[in-house]
Every structure is written in structure tokens, then in C-alpha cells.
Amino acid sequence: MQSTLVILAAGMASRYGSMKQTQSFGTSGETIMEYSVHDAIAAGFEKVIFIIREDFADVFKNIVEPKLKGKIEIDYVYQKLTSFTDGVNINPERTKPWGTAHAVLCCKGKVNEPFAVINADDFYGKDSFRKAYDFLQTRCKENKYAVIAYQLPNTLSEHGSVSRGVISVNEEQQMEGITECLKIYKQDGSIIYEEENGNLTELSADTKVSMNFFCYAPQFIDLCEEQFKIFLEENGQSLKAEFLIPTMTDYFIKSGKGKVEVITTGAKWFGVTYKEDAPVVATAIQHLVETGEYPENLWK
Q: Which residues are CB-contacts of 17 (< 8 A; sequence separation ≥ 6)?
């Protein structure tokens, strides 16, 4: 049975200031997402779909295709503001994409098999892809999905606050819910979550979080289509409201449609939320190459 990796690469990177999806970080000029594809191939994935914006499609394809062709099946999906918005009055001043769950919805018709979804600008580690592939091959069903869960301290930036989906886990290692915490940061040796009203909550070091690495059956796309219509009725005039994967996964659980297995990894995540993160990521990848975790050139 084929398993597909879907990579979210259509974001506008407003905090970062440039197109980080195609920025070089590896010792031979690799992007972060190339390490994800490399690890996915090693784990057994046979196909990768990149969700991108049509306006930078040529630049994107010129970067990835010479390296990946012949190594894994490649396809593309364009996330457009107008996709799946038929008949809804949208604010004409809106430019921001509708969010990650809308991006997955844009895969309708392209993905008809179990799939994993990740961010283009996050480094997840080999263990995550092995565990995701195993789940997709052996346990994924219409009523059973999974999230790859990271330990919160392994996901923080030294250069500012981050947004994380904090996972509630029951005794059966199933997700009870996921709460999107938009401002988490280190302060005086503690991990702080700052709510919109200014309230501060300290989070424990064993808190499990989502880094947008989920495993789904294809029916999840239909669920996104159903709920996106409702989202647009309430948010069609908004300039910033987003239709997000964590929210949809939470809805899947709370509405009784199924369960989400929590698959924990001890891998250290790193990514580029801020410009200041870039040299840290490059150094981390160089260290992984020097210790033999990855070759100096991924594709030779």
C-alpha cells in the first residue's frame, strides 16, 4: 500500500521575511525539506506532494526536481485563496492563505491513500518518519489517525516566541484534544505560555506538542471540505483568520468521528521561525553530517 508525504510549502513566512522554503541550510546547499524527503524515502514513502503557491512554482520546481526526480514520485498542488470558496463573499483585501487545513483540502483528488503531512521549514528527524510510515501501513483507518508528538523543550526557539499545538493525552496514548498556544517562550529557565489577554502560564518540560506532523486516511480531506464551508460562513470577511490542521484534528476527536494515536518521538526538532534561527539550523545540520547521521550531499 502506497503512503504519501504531503509537504506544506505555501506559507508566506511573514515573521521570517523571505521564502525560507527554498533557502539552503545543508552542507551541499540542501533545503530543510530535502532532509524530510530523504528521511521519508528511507522510511518507505513512495510519493511526495508539495503544496505551493502558483506564483513561485517555477522557482520551486527548478530547485527540487533536479535532485528528486527518479528517487520518489513528485506532484504539486497549488493553494489559492479562491480554492473551494465558490459562492462565498471573500474580503477582496485578503492576501494571507487560508491556513494548513485549507492547504490539505487543496489536495482533494490528488491524494486517495493514507498520507502524512508536514511543514516544509521544519526538521523532524529520521525517527519521526519511520514511526509515521509504520502507522500509515499498519494502523491508519478512516476512524484512526495519528500525531507525531515532540517534547516541548525540544521545539523552542532561542530568538522569540513560537506557536505550538499542546496535546492532551489520555492513558491509552490517544489525543484528547489539542490547544493552539500562539505565544510560548523561555523565561528565566521556565517555559511560559502567554495568552492573548496577557495571562501567563508555566508549561512543564514533559508537555507534548504537535509540530504539524500528522498521519491521516484520505477521508480527512473530505472532512476538511465539509468544515471549510462552515469556516468561510463565519470568517469569509476576515483578513487573518486561518483554517488549521490542529483545529480540524481536534474537531475529528470531539465530534466522535474517531481517535488520534499519539506517537512520541525523542527527536529534537529545529526550524526557522525567525532569521536568527537560520545559522542555528545550519550548524545543527552540519553537526549531523559530521557525526555521520547524513551524507555531505544528500543526493549523491
A: 275
Transcribe 176-221 into DSSP letters.
EEEEEEEEEEEETTEEEEE-TTS-EEEE-TT-EEEEEEEEE-THHH
Q: Give the ranges where 122-277 is alpha helix by DSSP (H).
A: 126-138, 219-235, 245-254
CB 94 within 8 A of CB 232: no
Backbone angles phi, psi at 222, to 5 degrees: -65, -40
Give the pLDDT confidence of 59-75 residue by residue, as tens digits.
889 988 999 989 999 99
Spatial distance between the Cα atoms of 166 and 150, rounded to a whole number of angstroms: 10
Domain 4-290 architecture? Alpha-Beta Complex (3.90)
Whether the Cβ atoms of residue 152 and residue 207 lie closer than 8 Å to each other: yes
Q: What global pTM score does this model have? A: 0.91
Helix (H, G, I), strand (E, B) or coil at 66: helix
Residue spans of the domains in the chain: they are 4-290
Contact 106/82 with Cβ under 8 angstroms?
A: no
**For residues 291 and 71, what is the distance between their CA atoms, to the nearest angstrom?**
25
